[in-house]
Design brief:
By secondary structure, the chain is of the alpha+beta class. It folds into two domains: 164 residues, no CATH class; 162 residues, no CATH class. The chain is built from twelve helices and twelve strands. A hairpin with a 2-residue loop joins β3 and β4. α2 crosses α8, α2 packs antiparallel against α9 and α2 packs antiparallel against α12. It is elongated and about 100 Å long. It starts with a helix and ends in a 10-residue tail after the last helix. 37% of the residues are buried.
Length: 398
């Protein structure tokens, strides 16, 4: 039985291999789709890991700085820092926007970090080149995926920044590279209006009778020129204390929403990328159905092309089990060729050039191989039924 399948494949090996390669491209797309989902989940986990935080303190009744807008006063960290179980606190802001680099724009997540030292929550944990931010204004550390180089000038809102350091795998949950700048600059970029808008607001304030009292107008104008808000306070829990215990204390006394690492991961994976996960899941189902249909059609066509040979086998007494095994082995061989081509294509071609991070895990490849074999076996049933219905008399027919 094995020799029959092998000899039949060798008889038309060129067509067989070419067909398997075409199927492999479809399988490569399927593996890449699974890798895209894995990459999205990994991006979300990397974002949380690199923040260096155990707790995220955000505006009450919001989902935090990554999934929803959050705004709290920038002096909130002082009250949190003095609470039992809190080792470190740091303000942080996040803003996704276009960053100018010469004539091109790069979409990035801007992260405003407080002054401190390596290990401070919100800081990039390591650099691949350059140094960390040491000045209070106009310096930036960028992820290498943004394409910036050391010493380059980039534009964020109306200010220019010098790239002093480069990091790696610092990305948002959407896969956008992160750019770190001083907190005061980030507050200005996120919350402060442009000069024309501020001027118009002051004119409206000046003509409002409610602000015509002495000193009131000056106070309002001064408030419009400051940025007393951040998106979140990152908290590191002291050794010996539980994250949930400290979070409950902050919720009780500060009337703010606090998320632990597990809760924040659930928000990012379970809510923020849930829709994308469903879309990818639907594509995987569709691609699997298409792959099964293609294999079934190819094997059925190959079987019809050798009806006379099958009739001869039945005439000389070959058992139906042997004929069924011949067709099924050819289907599995086609799937194996397709999987090998697909795996190579996904790893060496699709993953490197895809704009988002593609994580191809070995276990997914094993599951994919098993799925391909099962699909090929099921798809061969139609061809097997057609072969078993062949009349041995056709071997001596016209």
């Amino acid at each position: 039985m094995i020799s029959l399948a092998g000899r039949d494949i060798m008889h038309s090996w060129g067509k067989f291999v070419f067909t398997g390669a075409g199927l492999g491209l479809l399988i490569g797309v399927t593996l890449s789709m699974a890798g895209i989902y894995r990459g999205m989940v990994d991006d979300a986990k990397v974002l949380l890991d690199n923040s260096g935080a155990d707790l995220w303190v955000v505006q009450k009744d919001t989902l935090g700085p990554y999934a929803e807008p959050s705004s709290i006063y920038d002096d909130t960290w002082r009250g949190i820092r003095g609470m039992p179980g809190v080792a470190r606190t740091a303000n942080v802001t996040y803003l996704t926007m276009q960053v100018r680099q010469g004539e091109r724009d790069v979409r990035a997540m801007i992260s405003g970090v407080t002054a401190g030292e390596p290990g401070t929550p919100g800081w990039p944990p390591y650099l691949v080149a350059g140094r960390q931010i040491t000045r209070g204004h106009y310096e930036a550390v960028a992820d290498v995926a943004a394409g910036f180089k050391l010493g380059e000038r980039i534009g964020i809102r109306r200010n220019s920044y010098t790239v002093v350091g480069l990091t790696r795998r610092m990305v948002s949950s959407n896969g956008d590279p992160m750019v770190f700048i001083p907190l005061k600059d980030a507050q200005e970029a996120q919350f402060l209006k442009d000069n024309d808008a501020i001027l118009q607001q002051r004119r409206r304030t000046a003509v409002n009778p409610a602000f015509n009292q002495p000193g009131v107008l000056d106070a309002v104008i001064a408030s419009q020129s400051t940025n007393p808000y951040v998106n979140a306070v990152l908290v590191q829990v002291a050794f010996g204390h539980g994250a949930e215990e400290v979070a409950a204390s902050i919720r009780r006394w500060k009337q703010l929403t606090v998320y632990t690492r597990g809760q924040m991961e659930e928000i990012l994976v379970g809510k923020l990328i849930a829709t994308s996960a469903k879309q990818i899941g639907m594509f995987l189902v569709i691609l699997s159905i298409v792959s099964a249909a293609i294999v079934a059609f190819i094997i059925y066509t190959l079987t019809l092309g050798k009806i006379r040979e099958i009739a001869v086998l039945k005439l000389i007494g070959t058992r139906n089990r042997t004929i069924a095994g011949l067709i099924m082995q050819q289907a599995v061989a086609l799937g194996v060729i397709g999987f090998v081509v697909g795996k190579i294509t996904a790893t060496l071609v699709m993953a490197p050039i895809f704009p988002k991070y593609v994580l191809l895990e070995p276990l997914d490849s094993v599951k994919g191989f098993v799925a391909v074999v099962v699909i090929c076996v099921i798809s061969s049933i139609i061809a097997i039924r057609a072969a078993l219905k062949v009349d041995p008399a056709e071997a001596i027919g016209g």
